[in-house]
Amino acid sequence: MNTNLPVAIIGGGPIGLAAAAQLSQQNQPFVLFESGNQIGTNFLDYGHVRLFSPWKYNMDSAAKELLKMHAISLPDEGRLPYGKEIVDDYLIPLASLPEMKPYIHVNSKVHAITRKGFDKVKTANREQAPFVIQVQKEHSNETYEARAVIDATGTWQNPNPVGAGGIRAEGEEETSNSIRYGIPDVLNTERKRYEGKKVVIVGSGHSAINTLLDLAELPDTELHWLLRKKDVRETYGGMEDDALPGRGALGTKIQELVDSGQVNVHTPMFVRSITQEDQTLTIHGEVNGDETTIEEVDEIVSTTGARPTFDFVRELRYTFDPTLESVPELAELIDPNIHSCGTVRAHGEKELRQPEPNFYIIGAKSYGRAPTFLLATGYEQARSVVAYLSGDFDRAKEVHLNLPETGVCNSGNLFNTKSSQGSCC
């Protein structure tokens, strides 16, 4: 293989750009493909949401060095950024640097990756063949070659369905115009869609709680919360006793909202089907084995998490954990039934290896369906993988995470103002 070929990075979010910055620091050629029309498009989807972790943990070390080298000021490391600030104040300045910009391609969707002249089955001399990447651009289809591939595409664009059991509810696709997957900006750009409406929120994580807290600010809005958990109190966490103040504050706020009667809780509810009559929806499901319906619903917000997709790497030899769909070696470390966001043992290139040499899945996608991923973890993954690809095997092994034992998520006085109620890790 031509060792002068670049490393191809798929995904232009924080982790993909961190890998690019690390490669630049090591004087290794790279090319980065982002399917969106600009860098950081996933973060812009929830740009109104404030993160739990401060800037200190949301910037890659090599990226910071590049920015400093060009005398670009960095955000206050102790402040909690919004999603949009991650893009505007960090990713865009980073991607605009001369060491980065020429090698970044936006509006570039990767359709397929293979080995040159090799399908998935053929083995002999496979490792000597470069990777071939087919990319759909705005006005053309192009092919690139690379000596290694780093998949940092994340999972955000592949949300889990409303239906129970991990599959779409009957009628979910047909009623999708009334379903919002993710975290809507209900206090600003999407206010008219929800104000004065009957809204159902599906999911039990921080995204659901943040959405409920924002919706509660809208007048004349009827809220219904559907959870598969047996008891809504399972979502409250430790509240004031929580080692993570931001998460604890969320628990306290949502308990107050539930206790006030402003939100109607349906638990444990499993959605089976969604039907539409005139302009409203009816949700059909089960609660404790009994059939139940919620009628005259105007809007559904689905915050049930996300999952990875592997379509474009089908011709590569990849594998994943059968339960989490994570990188196999990470599964035991990130099982959400055991680990919180700050207690995942340090890991790097060795744990991220795939059966296909020089192909790596890093970032949120490496965690599969586990919800505990932190940017700081992804940055360390990128550093370790790039060190290995640069031939510095010792540095690749020296993996560590600078996180407090109980995690980096914190919010301090996050809930003092309405504008800061949206927050997540």
TrEMBL record:
The UniProt record lists the keyword Transmembrane helix = no
Database matches in PANTHER family = FLAVIN-BINDING MONOOXYGENASE-LIKE PROTEIN (AFU_ORTHOLOGUE AFUA_4G09220), FLAVIN-CONTAINING MONOOXYGENASE
What is the designated name of this protein? NAD(P)-binding protein
Name the species this protein comes from. Pontibacillus yanchengensis
GO molecular function term, any single one: flavin adenine dinucleotide binding
What keyword terms does UniProt attach to this protein? Oxidoreductase
Looking up Gene3D superfamilies in the UniProt record yields: FAD/NAD(P)-binding domain
**What is the annotated signal peptide range for this record?**
none
Domain of life of the organism in this record? Bacteria
In the UniProt record, does the keyword Oxidoreductase occur?
yes
